[in-house]
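Following up on my earlier thread - several people asked me to post the actual chain instead of describing it. Fair enough. Here it is, all 337 residues.
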Amino acid sequence: MGFRIEIDKTLKTPIYQQITDLVISGIESDTILVGEMLPSINQVAKENGVARETVIKSFSALQERGIVQPVQGKGFFVLTKSVDIRNRVFLFFDTFSAYKQTFYKGFRDSLGSNSIVDLYFHHFNPKIFKKLLDEAVGNYTHFVILPFDYPEIANYLKVVPEERLYLTDRYPHFLKTGYSAVYQKFDDDVFHALTSVGTLINKYNCLTLVFCDTITVVPAELKDGFERFCRQNDVNYQISCGIDSNANICKGDSFLIIDDDDLVRLVEIANERKLIIGQDIGIISYNDTPLKKVVSKGISVISTDFKKMGETIAGMILNNERACIQNSCSFINRGSF
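Reply from S.P.:
Thanks for posting it. Predicted structure:
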């Protein structure tokens, strides 16, 4: 093999970084081509008088950036000429939705062109969660994961180096403290957002939380925050599992809607029965999307800032920062309540 890795021990640059830089230089200069095999770990270690672990550290870093790929029983092969990629991120959502698209765009754009984001979905399935995560370890520089309420996840996450793991959206109580995260605290978020609505709530006879969601699993803490607000403020309330087309919607009713399908049905019912939204009935939707700015002249929302959430995590990755941050949440009044 023509390509050799020769380390200069007089340099202050760490040896593992020298190996990485030499491989990248070799790829850029076409000294080693896509599809060709790197010198073996044992060969590099022996020829340069360094520990195998040092060579493994370098080759593993190249693998995580997607530059080389290991083949069982053979060695490491060059995968691409795109060696300028600094971050390769495993982004693990539950499902995809409009507000997660807002997160994704803010996250991806903030990382910049020297980063690759691979998006996966676990669909709240523990077996899929574990399988995809196990397969991803060793192939990415960072892991951004949206967990769900399944305690065994605490064990599944142990395969990921803690310094490369970032939780997003949720931080379940069964996970240990100390993980980097940008998360929502659903009970407090709903409580404080409804508090900021102020006297508008007094316009209505009852506030109904429509808590069914056919796409994602709604955190129970959200319901807890809703009930706490209503009880402390003597608000007449109820909790409903969905809205169908025959629902008994009357003047004086108001709603906090979780699922967008329920929101659409409620707006249709209001229009059919000539109920004026924001006067005869009140509507607040949970989680903002661009369409809610224009649907029925605008739908008021309680929402975290998903764009900011994505941007914050991207900034932590780029700056190699570790932190646990509660993302901001607010009530946005568009006149539907």
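The radius of gyration is 26 Å. That should answer part of your original question.
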